[in-house]
Amino acid sequence: MTTTSKGPLTCRREGPLRGTIEVPGDKSVSHRSLLFGALAEGETRVRGLLDAGDVRSTRAAVEALGATVRTEGDEVVVIGAEKLREPGDVIDCGNSGTSLRLLCGVLSGVPGLAVLTGDASLRKRPVRRVIDPLRRMGASLLARDGDRLPPVVIRGGSLRGVRHVLEVASAQVKSAILLAGLFAEGETSVVEPQRSRDHTERMLQGMGVPVRVDGLEVKISAGRPRGTRVDVPGDISSAAFFLCAAAALPGSRVTVRNLGVNETRTGVLDVLQAAGAKVTVAGAREIAGEPRADVTVEAAELRGVEIRGALVPRLIDELPVVMVMATQAQGRTVIRDARELRVKESDRLAAMGETLARAGARIELHDDGCTIDGPTPLRGVAVQTRLDHRIAMSMAIAQLFAGGEEVVLDDVACVSTSFPSFFGLLDALAQGARP
Ligand code: S3P
Questions:
Q1: pTM for the predicted model, two decimal places
Q2: Is 410 part of the annotated catalytic residue set?
């Protein structure tokens, strides 16, 4: 049963997981196809767009700015506006940090006033990281609580290109700056401490914008993208729930077809391999600038791993379910340099640390990560999902290791922000294992 409606959900499934599935389209690529399509000359045809709450927030926003979005068969068509217009109302980004931060960049270059807000989770997430660089380019932005938190008020106007050196690797901040750079006089560049996901660079290049990548620096100059075709690969951040579960549940074997395997996103596959799982990547191909492949993970005796440094941005969204998997691995798993987890849809270190500890895990939290000693059997727990889809889905996976006990999620509406078919696919894989 697919259940992502509002309210509590009791999970009680038994593994192993077996079968071949596809997961819905990549969320990061989906947001960008709508947003860049709205800026583009001509039409952008998108196949495989993720149909989920966060992407709907971006769709509503670009429509409010004057772009047209319509569904034609299995494609979504975006018709760009010659000049984006001042929105007539507050733009509600819901739960979606990507919508809010990327829109800050676009709206800095659109004359007029715009206000961006979101749900209770999004209104606790930092925005100074995007406001400060955009101000240096000449934009006028204000936010609540000393410019720390949404809502954000933006008065767009003329911008000048600036070189920005980021303190944290963030594809949202990098993308916001590059989008503002499309409207700026002179060259805009961003230098990151480590490479974050590069979907913006790839898609803009595919739309004819000369984006130059030189090591950790990305440079862009003013220009208007050209409409293009986008084919959205499956989201590795969604697949990770099943792949990590399959690695640790004896007898499991899961294949995910047409999965996005952009190397800025495949840290979880490296960790699965390092932990001893059998990982096979077949049929690798590149379509519309994004690599994809059919990925199979088979269960094995897992061992603890170290996750730090440049690996972290390559699997930041997967860390909650990696933490679940680590409770089943022999020995110590150490996660460091992942302070960013504290400013996602919830403080994911605190949420997973507290919840896994109650479920019987041996976990110690650090300011920037955690140490997990395994293996430990888990037990059933009541989970506060905190408006965070990845906490809900990670703990639904944790239940598979709870010896038949129940995990009760207090509210699973959040799952529909990124992965409405999660529970249906989990059931299918659990049933696939049955004779
Ligand atoms: C995203 C970037 C990451 C990631 C988020 C999606 C994007 O956030 O966690 O889920 O699409 O650019 P940060 O830029 O804050 O690291």
A1: 0.98
A2: no
Contact 262, 198 (CB under 8 A): yes
> How many angstroms does the Cα of residue 174 sit away from the middle of ligand 1?
10
Q: With 80 as the cut, is the pLDDT of residue 2 above it?
A: no
Confidence band for 246, pLDDT divided at 50, 70 and 90: very high
Can you tell me which atom of ligand 1 is nearest the CA of 344? 9
Residue 264 tokens read as 């800025």
Residue whose pair of structure tokens reads 């690798």 in the numeric block: 284
Q: Say what the pLDDT of residue 1 is.
A: 39
Q: What does the DSSP assignment read for 356-378?
A: HHHTT-EEEEETTEEEEEE----
Q: What is the dihedral of CA 64, 65, 66, 68, to 10 degrees?
A: -70
**Measured distance CA(94)–CA(393) in Å, rounded:** 19
Q: What is the mean pLDDT of the chain?
A: 97
- Indicate which residue's Cα is closest to atom 4 of ligand 1: 317
Which pLDDT band, with edges at 50, 70 and 90, does 5 fall under? Answer: confident
Is a pLDDT exceeding 80 seen at residue 123?
Answer: yes
In the chain, the amino acid numbered 246 is: A
* 28 touches ligand 1 (CB under 6 Å): yes
Query: How many angstroms separate the CA atoms of 188 and 421, rounded?
Result: 40
How many CA within 13 A on the CB side of residue 13? 26
Q: Which of 317, 337, 367, 411 is catalytic?
A: 317
CA 170 / ligand 1 centre spacing (Å):
6
The neighbouring-strand residues paired with 369 are 366
Contacts of residue 188, defined as CB under 8 A and 6 or more positions apart, other chains included, come to 137, 161, 162, 163, 164, 177, 178, 180, 181, 219, 220, 221
Q: What one-character DSSP code corresponds to residue 183? A: T
Question: Which domains does the chain possess?
Answer: 9-25+233-432 (3.65.10.10), 27-231 (3.65.10.10)
Q: What is the mean pLDDT of residues 20-47?
A: 98
Written as six digits, the tokens of 380 are 């059933």
Give the number of the atom of ligand 1 that is nearest the alpha carbon of residue 173.
14
